[in-house]
Specification:
Elements lengths: L2 H5 L3 H23 L7 H29 L3
């Protein structure tokens, strides 16, 4: 997914997507460690998507904190 797609999501939807990506990364890491994972590049793609989603979530929390602080 592109970062723009994550930015277009509502907060609840983004939180749900974060939970799903975390579960997927866990499952892929487990499969990779046990030698069952055929598409090892999928692990990297999923981790990258998780990082993008976390970045967008962090941007939103910083933006909310700035608006509460008066824009300082």
């Amino acid at each position: 997914m592109q970062a723009k797609e994550f930015r277009d999501m509502e907060d609840a939807e983004l939180a749900k997507q974060l939970a799903e990506l975390r579960k997927e990364v866990f499952g892929l890491r487990f499969s990779n460690a046990s030698g069952e994972l055929d598409d090892t590049a999928r692990l990297s793609r999923t981790k990258r998507d998780l990082a993008r989603a976390l970045t967008v979530a962090r941007e939103r929390s910083l933006s909310a904190a700035r608006s509460q602080d008066g824009g300082r």
